[in-house]
Amino acid sequence: MPQFLVKLEKKIGKYSIPRLPLIMIIFYAVGYMMQLINPDIIDVLTLNPYAILHGQVWRIISWMLIPPETSNLFFVLIMMYFYYSIGTTLERTWGSFYFNVYIFSGILFTVIGAFLLYITVNFLRPGAADEFNSVYIATFGEALPTLYGGHVYYAMMAREFSTYYVNMSIFLAFAATYPDMQVLLMFIIPIKVKILGIIYAVYLFYQAAMSLSENGSVSVLFVIMASMLNFILFFIFTRKGFKRTPQMKARQREFRRQVNAAKPRTIARHKCAICGRTSEEYPDLEFRFCSKCEGNYEYCSDHIFTHKHFTRDTNNG
Predict the structure, then answer these.
(1) Domain that holds residue 244
(2) Domain count of the chain?
(3) Is the entire prediction scored with pTM above 0.85?
(4) Strands 182-185 vs 189-192: parallel, antiparallel or unpaired
């Protein structure tokens, strides 16, 4: 872990936001409700640099209300639970401060990426956006551009910037932190998280390559690069991956201890008082109680006739 983050945690770590995954899920839930009530509300919330520079400054934050696209309520609930689960696990492992830094850096880089895309489009194709906007107004009227922040071209470009890739950066971080943890793909197939992480990374490269093709959209490339930059800084530039501090290692051990403690344990029905073997470990052994021992002492077939009888004097001695 870079030393400046360690020093920064000592100074402002106490101001970190606890239970940030829950807050993110609440944001998504509010966004889904707003979208169900009025589907057009999304265009008022998007990260649109043109609209922001023309007074709609709320878009710097409101785009975080836009949830990943899905029309199935069941998958919405599954998605929320999944990201809440892995987000909470990362927060417990890293601590609230480092998880806050990871999430907010992803949000910050996404905002910067949106403005860099806006500048790039104006530099590479000056006048093309205004020409497209004029044609759209002549075709559909003047009311729609107002809804779209005053410019249809930039509104369509802004739709690419959502929390989808920020969420995927959380998943990649989880896969890098717990590579050997298994999940049930489609609730049936057990698969290690690192395999899913690799598949998704390959898919990201594919999307980035397609965005550079003739039919692709350069905005997709900017979105991917911006939202993935926090993962690159945390896991690539440190060379050896996410270098955990002793405090983070302790939190990870504690989390694993809690998980193991929550697992049901099998209690042996029979246990030999001499050798300690149990009926669970050695199902072929026979176990019997000794009527001559004072107390509930049970022995395996190897010691039922050879043991020394327990008496009250033996117990006290």
Answers:
(1) 3-262
(2) 2
(3) no
(4) antiparallel
